[in-house]
Every structure is written in structure tokens, then in C-alpha cells.
Recover the amino acids of this structure.
DNA sequence: TTGAAAGCGCTAACAC
DNA sequence: GTGTTAGCGCTTTCAA
């Protein structure tokens, strides 16, 4: 295969110095005579020398690789988190390994093992909905978004999430303010902690205003299921004038059903989604939605992970960042 | 930080054998007495021993990590490629490092350096539009989708792409068959080789049928620019009855403009996008589009990369896979 | 069938 | 300022 890459030893020989001196130049520690340094740098340049990070991490036991585990990289919200986290760590000189679990706990376990074998310094983890109950590694880990199942022992778990309860609450309240009398929540309840929290927020808003929470329970997060259940529901119940969907994709499904039933949005029925995805923005009928501060969440997570990797016990282990309503001006 | 992880030496001591024997068990080579093996396996199990892949790769110079470089992981097409490639290699026991370049050649160069320093065995690379002219590494690399700038020396470059020319051609022809007389192409021409090829396909179809190719040149791939240019164009030219957009997002922008101008799709104007993204599927007016075989492209790429890593010179270094039209039934 | 030992590229402690 | 050297976890000859 491609010729063996050139090592510190080769550089030392070519520059006529010892490997220790070359090492000093690479790491900019210890004293080195200016002309020696210049010479070494020149040789490194000429030979396109790239230090072997494997050997370095191996030697120092300092690992400059970070693992990111997501349930599905092709979902906008997760890919944005991964992108941001990666960018942050890249700037700090870390490599990042992004892993997909496809929402499968077996894949998840394998990912963790693999990351452990690769000796990553830390992990940013968005758990899959089928995640296992026990913590499976001693590698410093920060969870984002979804709450791991073993979360009852909160102390030893760092979680960054947005305020899902508040998101559900605010969205629902906004519709109530706009005059909605009968608001339904479309939610896949067994698809992770976040949906449940959004549902809780919805319930809170409803109950505060004397309304009765109503759930359309979905089997998955596709727009198809939402569409079908919406067709059925709106076919028989003409009083509904608001829908809170716990994610944008669901809102899109509902929207399609409403369009087909010739029910006008938002004049007859208001629809709220969740995530401020590209979808919600560019849908021909744009949908109001709840935006999670992805950048902030990623920054917090990176910050916490760095602390963990430095051996610090963070004072707060559960950070909840605020969400923001995104209203849209729509035609009809 | 987390306690030092347990090494082969610890296992050897606990099992009362030498590290060489443990190594043999791990790698299933060399002869080991059954009971010795059993004992060792038991000790490994009890202590949750995970072999240090860093040390292993370091020692053997066999690297079981693959790098994937994409211009923007938050774009559906790229994230799907990354997901598929990662899944394929995961099953073969490789770890994958996914890197974002944000379409920036400086980031790209850094990514390559980093992957080289991490001693990845191979790279799957979707170049950024600002990519540099020279090949920058001797690591086995397979390009997907976009053609690198130094592609004139095709021999030493492996590229997997879908048939963009044919995609443009087929989409345009489809509209011509449906009776369109004046078809316009919306295309960001300086945004990579793929758009240019789609434009070429469009031109071919137009010229074959005696039509004149017309270009609306976009500054970027956002739907905003497409929207604005469409508003202007359709405001003054009422004869246009077809649009070929070189990506779905652009089609969405055009669609918005048409809706605002109360021009009916597809009865008055037909719109074709590209990529069969979720967007095109669930847009309230679904758009016809061209689908690239993402899975197939990923599989081919993985296959070629494995060959390169094994030191084989592949017989064909430029693979073009076919695309498929996705027509939609629409309301109006 | 098993063990001893060299060495992969690098850093850091120590000697000069 | 610079060189020598041990050793990180592992594989792989070579001997026993």
C-alpha cells in the first residue's frame, strides 16, 4: 500500500539531531536553539511530516478523539448537533468520530465498545429510544436531548436538554391565546423522553386554562401515520381548532390531511410543530414551530465534556436551556 | 479521570500466563491449549477487557479506521451517504470518522491532515466546492458525487458518481413529453461539477428537440435566491411552462414564487427538482425529482476503497451509476 | 503449547 | 540546548 509514512526518527536523522529535539519542536516545549528549530521545521516541511497522533495519544494517554453517538444522522436535528459539536472540537484540535445507532441498542452498544477500543477521550451521546438501562462505559460522557433510562441516579450523569416541557407549554399557550378552544396533541409517546416532556407541557397549558388534554398517540414519527390519524380524526370531529405536533414531520402529516379535507390553516385550525426544521420553514404552508437552541446545546455539551475529561465534577449535571417560539406569517 | 483501563498485561497476570498467550487468544492465531484459552477468556470477560485498538493499529500498521469527508453533514443527501458508508464499514469492523468541511478548502485540508495523523486506512471524500487542485495525501481515497478539480489525471483517481447528465436529460425530456414548450433551468453553476453536468443534460434534451437552453444562474443553493429570481422571471415571461431545478431546494423556491404569483403547478408550469429529498416528497405540492441511488453509490465506494486499501489497482476507476425519475401525482 | 523480548512512534525524565 | 533512554499496549519472531 502507500509507502510507510515518515516518522520523527527520519526527521531527526535528516536534520542531524536527536528525536527528542524534534519532539520538542513539534510540541513547542523545552528550549531549542532558533537555528536548530528552523532547520527541523524546514526538514519537516520538505518531507510533509505529519505527527502520528495514534502514537502520541498512546504514549501520553491523552486522547484527542471525541465520539459522537446519534440515533440517526440523516435526521436534521441530530445532524445539526453533530455538525456543531464536531466544529467546536475541531477548533480545539480534537478529531471526532460520529456514529449512528439507527435507534438500535445493539448498534449502540457496539458503538460504545468501538469508541472505547479507540480510546476516545469523551463521548457526546444522544441515546436511541431502545437504549439500555445500565451505563456501559467509564468514558466521560455527556448526554444531549434524550434522557438515558438510568437517569434516576442523576448525580453521575450529565445531561443537556432544551426545555421540552416549556416548549410544549408555550406552543399550546400561543394557540390558546389566539383563540383555540379544542387543541389536540399528536405525539409518539414511546419514542423517547423528549416527546413525553412536550406532551407534559401541553397538558399543563391545557389544564391551567380548564381545557382537557387529548392525545393522538402515534406509532412512529413519520408523517404518514400522522396523516392517517388526522384524516380519521378531523373527518368526524369538526370542533378541533388547534394541533400541537411534537415534531415538525408530524405537523407536516397533519397539514397534508387538513389540506385534503379542505380545512384552512391557520384560520380554521392552527398547527404547531417542533424543531424549526427546514421542512417547517419551506413547507408551502409554513408551520409555526418550537426552536431548540442547537448551537447553545452543543456548546454547553462540549464545555461540560471538557470538564469531565479534565477530571472535574461539574457543579450542575443537568442543564436545561430555553426554547423559542417561531411564528410564521401565513397566507390563508 | 476514569481509572486506567485494563491491559493485556493485567489479563496475563490474572490468568497466570504470558501476554503472548493472551494475544494469541485475542487474535485466534497460534495454538493455545483449550483450557488455557478458556481460562483467559473467562478472565477477560470478568474484567470487561477491551483490546486497545490504538496500540494494535500502531503495532501492526493496519488501520481499521475509515475517514468520511463531506461538505455539509446537515444536507440530506450527504448525511445519507455518510450514514450508509458508515453502516457498511461498521459491519466490517471498521470505525469511521465523519468530518465536515463546511464547503471550505481550509477545513478540508485540516480534515485530511487530521485523518492522516489518525492513520486512517482510507478516505471516502465528497469534495467541497472550493476544493484545492492538488491531491493532498497518499491515503487510499475514493471520491463520491463531486469530481475533484485535479480530475484531468483520471487514472489515479477513483470516482463514484451518479449519471447527472442523464438525470438532467431525463427530467427535461419528461417535461417535453408532457408538452412543455419553454423550459428554463435554475442552476448554481459554480457550485460543483454535479450541477454543471445536470445543466449539460438539460441542454442536450433541449437541443435535440430544437429548443433553446435558458439558464437562470443562481448565486447559491438556497431556496431564497431561487424564489427571488423566479418571481422576477415569471413576472415578465408568461410563456414559461417548465422548470428544471438542479436540486430540490431550488425547486421549492420556484414553487413558492409560482404559488405567490397564482400560477398553477403542474397544469400551467411543471417543476422538476433533483435528489428525491424528504422535502420534495412532503412539500404540500410534491415535486417530481431525480433520485440518485445513494445506497448503491455508497456500496460501490466502499467496495472500491477496500480494494485500494488492499493495494489493488481497480480496473475501472470511474463508475457512473444510473438515476431514476420520481414522478408525483399532484392535485392541481 | 508457551514465554521472552524486540519494536511500532512518540514523550518526558534525566543526564550532560 | 541537546541527547539518551524507558515505556505506553500490542504483535510477532525466536527459543524453549
Amino acid at each position: 500500500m502507500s509507502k510507510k509514512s515518515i516518522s520523527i526518527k527520519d526527521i531527526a536523522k535528516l536534520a542531524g539531531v536527536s528525536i527528542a529535539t524534534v519532539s520538542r519542536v513539534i510540541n513547542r516545549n523545552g528550549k531549542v536553539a532558533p537555528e536548530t528549530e528552523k532547520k527541523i521545521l524546514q526538514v519537516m516541511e520538505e518531507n510533509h511530516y505529519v505527527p502520528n497522533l495514534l502514537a502520541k495519544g498512546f504514549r501520553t494517554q491523552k486522547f484527542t478523539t471525541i465520539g459522537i453517538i446519534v440515533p440517526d444522522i440523516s435526521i436534521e436535528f441530530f445532524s445539526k448537533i453533530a455538525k456543531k459539536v464536531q466544529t467546536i472540537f475541531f477548533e480545539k484540535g480534537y478529531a471526532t468520530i460520529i456514529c449512528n445507532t439507527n435507534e438500535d441498542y445493539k448498534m449502540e452498544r457496539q458503538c460504545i465498545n468501538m469508541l472505547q477500543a479507540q480510546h476516545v477521550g469523551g463521548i457526546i451521546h444522544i441515546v436511541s429510544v431502545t437504549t439500555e438501562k445500565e451505563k456501559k462505559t467509564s468514558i466521560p460522557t455527556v448526554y444531549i436531548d434524550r434522557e438515558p433510562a438510568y437517569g434516576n441516579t442523576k448525580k453521575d450523569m450529565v445531561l443537556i436538554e432544551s426545555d421540552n416541557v416549556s416548549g410544549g407549554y408555550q406552543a399550546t399557550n400561543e394557540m390558546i391565546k389566539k383563540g383555540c378552544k379544542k387543541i389536540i396533541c399528536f405525539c409518539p409517546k414511546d419514542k423517547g423522553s423528549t416527546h413525553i416532556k412536550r406532551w407534559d407541557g401541553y397538558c399543563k397549558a391545557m389544564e391551567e386554562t380548564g381545557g382537557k388534554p387529548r392525545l393522538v398517540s402515534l406509532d412512529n414519527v413519520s408523517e404518514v401515520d400522522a396523516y392517517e390519524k388526522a384524516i380519521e380524526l378531523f373527518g368526524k370531529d369538526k370542533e378541533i381548532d388547534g394541533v400541537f405536533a411534537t415534531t415538525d414531520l408530524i405537523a407536516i402529516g397533519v397539514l397534508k390531511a387538513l389540506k385534503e379535507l379542505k380545512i384552512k390553516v391557520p384560520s380554521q385550525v392552527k398547527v404547531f410543530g417542533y424543531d424549526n426544521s427546514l421542512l417547517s420553514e419551506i413547507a408551502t404552508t409554513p408551520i409555526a414551530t418550537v426552536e431548540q437552541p442547537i448551537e447553545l446545546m452543543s456548546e454547553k455539551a462540549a464545555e461540560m465534556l471538557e470538564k469531565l475529561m479534565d477530571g472535574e465534577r461539574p457543579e450542575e449535571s443537568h442543564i436545561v436551556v430555553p426554547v423559542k417560539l417561531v411564528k410564521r406569517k401565513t397566507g390563508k
Q: What stands out?
A: The two ends of chain B are 63 Å apart (CA to CA).
